[in-house]
Give the backbone structure.
Amino acid sequence: MGWNERMRQKYELDRARETDVDILAIESSCDETAAAVVRNGKKLLSSVVSSQMTTHQRYGGVVPEVASRAHVEEITRVIEQALREADRTLDSLQAIAVTYAPGLIGALFVGVTAAKSLAQASGLPLVGVHHLAGHMYAAAISDEIEPPFTALIVSGGHTELLHVLRHGDMVRMGRTRDDAAGEAFDKVARALGLGYPGGPELERMAASGDPDYISFPRAKLEVGSYDFSFSGLKSAVMLHIDKEKRAGREPRKEDIASSFQRAVTDILVTKAMQCVEQTREDTLVLAGGVAANGALREALRQACATKGVRLAVPPLWLCTDNAAMIGAAAYHRYQMGKLDDLYLTARADLSIDAW
C-alpha cells in the first residue's frame, strides 16, 4: 500500500472514530524554528520555539542563507522536544502540518522537507498551512472565535484586511501596495539607530516621546479602497531625520518614533474600522507580529468599543512566529479533508485568498 492510500485510510479511520485531533505542526518561514502539538485546533500540548534573533542581530536583519542553515541544525531537535513535552509519538497523532508559504524559500524548504519525511515514514496525513492563516488562527487558541469575522493581519512582510466567511473561505478586502507596516517599523528604527528587531525597540522609544511632535503624512488612496501604503510615510520620516541633521540639530528620536507610531496606528485603525462597517461582522481579529504593539492594540480596543465590535487579539507570545498557530489553522483544513500529498513544495509568495 502506497503512502497516499495509507494516509487516506488513516484519515478516514480517525474521522469515523471521532477521536481528538492531535496535530504536530512545524514552522520555519523566517528566523524561528518551531514545532508544536495542538489538540482540536485550540489546546496546546506543547510549543517549542528556537529563535535566531541573536544570530541575526549582528547583521541588522535576517540573512536568508544563515536562517536556512540554522533551521537545518535545529529542526530535528525542536520536533523531538515538542513530541516529548506533549508525551506523544508519531503513531498517536492524526496529522502533520507545516508552513509552506509565504516566507524565505530556503527556510520554508527545511520545514516542508522535514514534514514530508515524517508523513511518508508514518503514513500520517499532511496539511500545508499558509503562514498568514496561522497568524489569524492564533486568536482561536486564546479566544473563542468562529467565522464569520473580519481580520487585520499586520506583520513584517504583510498587511492585509480579510473577510473570513467560513473556515477555508475568505475574501481579501485590502493589502499593502508597497511596504508592510512591520517593514516600515524596522526601516524607521534603523534610521533612528535602533537595534534589530526594530519594531519593539521603536515602540519602547516612542513611549517617552510626543506623538503630536510632527504630523507625518497618511497616504490618501482612492475612495472605498481598503489598501494600505506606508512607503510615503517611511520616506517622510527619513527626510525629516536628514533635514534635522543637515541643519546641525540632533533629531528628537523619541518624538519622531512616537509621531511615526501614531501615524501607522491611525492608518491601520481607520482602514480596519471602515472595513468592519462594510462587512458588518461583530468580531475583528488582530494578528501578526505587529499585533504585539501596545499602541495599536489599545487604539483598536477603543475603536472597537465605540462601534460595539469584539476585538480578538492573541497574547503577545502568539503574535510572533510559532508552530502553535500553524496547528490551529491546520485543524480546520484537516476537518474539511483538505490534505496535501508529497508533491507539496515551499512557495516564497502566495496570496492568502488563494489558499
User: Anything to note?
Assistant: The chain has two domains: 3-137+320-354, 145-313. The first strand starts at residue 22 and ends at 27.
